[in-house]
Design brief:
Shape: globular
CATH topology: Growth Hormone, Chain: A
CATH class: Mainly Alpha
Number of helices: 15
Mean pLDDT: 80
Strand content: under 5%
Low-confidence stretches: 1-33
Radius of gyration: 22 Å
Largest sheet: none
CATH superfamily: MFS general substrate transporter like domains
Amino acid sequence: MKHSAERETLLPNIRNEYAKKAYVPYAPVMSTSVISKKQIWLWALYDLANSMGFLGVTFYFGLWFVADLGGSEAWMSAAVGLSTIALVCTLPFFGRRSDDTGRRKSFLTVFSILCMAALALLGLYGGGVTSLSRGSTLLIIALYFFVQYFYQAGLAFYDAFLKDLTHDARGVDGLSGLGMAMGQVGNVVALACLYPVAQGTISIGSLAGKPAAFVVSAILFLISALPVFLYLRDPPSVSRATHLEGFGATVKATLKDLRAIRTYPGVLPFLIAYYLFADAMLTLALFITLYLDVVGHLSDLQKNLALLMALLLGIAGGLLAPACVRLFHGRKRALRVLVAVWTVFVLWIAVARTPLMFMIVASVNGFVYGALFALARSFFATLVPQGKQAEFFSVFVLFERTASILGPILWSATAALFASYGPDKYRFSVAVLALLVGISFFVLRKVREPDSP
């Protein structure tokens, strides 16, 4: 009874404290004089850099491992799922450490360099693999696991800069949209650089084909991110703990904060909604090239053209995210409209029949994707309590990644259930993902939008 009484007195205090902070006019972490355009562009440059690095895996790993080497897509799903479990166990701890020390860039740099190393090793080792054995399969999947883990871990600390680099709540939309647009630019540049490498037209010494594309991705990531590592600054006004807790105490405090998330208005229902539509996004990203190949019968050139158009429209979507907020009179309304539109587009992918139709719907889908995820990130930034950006964005990444467990399971289970339809079994998998996106539309109704200045 004592613990129950303490809990009942604690929760109102948490709510009252957050109400004082979150629903007053947006207060920047850094003063206006400190925030420079250089820092903003350096931050956005990282989105370009990590997109250039990760596109090689997103676009070519499934084709190489499943289509070329004859591996099972279940191995890919297992690697993504295990990386998510690892993130759940470790990322909130790193996020709390970042908030306590005021260090964002050091965590971002370390995780990014480790991602580059795993990506380069995947290409160097994969270049010598012509057929899969048990040992080679395990090593390839292990490297794929590390690429996934380190890439996602770095994103938490990148996103945590959002509140540090904006003057007001409206500025978050523009900054998040700029980052999304830069990320899509990175994808376009990477696609142009990687296509001739993946096709074997250009080789790197004795390394050619898709494994060579992984190595080039790592190199592009490193070159593009170097200015970020060297010149992006941690926000000077982020409070630093005078005494750092030990590992055990930090874990306990982190778990306590995670349990208290439901007491922050709007945070939990938003994360649930985000979980649902991120589920569709991650699963489509994982299997889209295989889907366009097996179901859409698109050639490599057609797949690349469809992706290129989607990326170009994604740039427009990211940059126009603030305009969507103004058009629909608020972030929440804009998000719900975009989610509804995206539900239609995902269903369209499921029923498309001709290669031209696949290319059109995949291309137009890019605009909705760019605007939707730019606004999702900026909306969450306005819900996050001050001083807990890294920890809460760690949770944001975790909700996205735990979706990567459910999504591939649903995809594979649905495909198995409708196996008698041959390649069209994957159409039912896409339809299930559209259902998840549609459910998120209704969950977003429960989210309370903070007042804007």
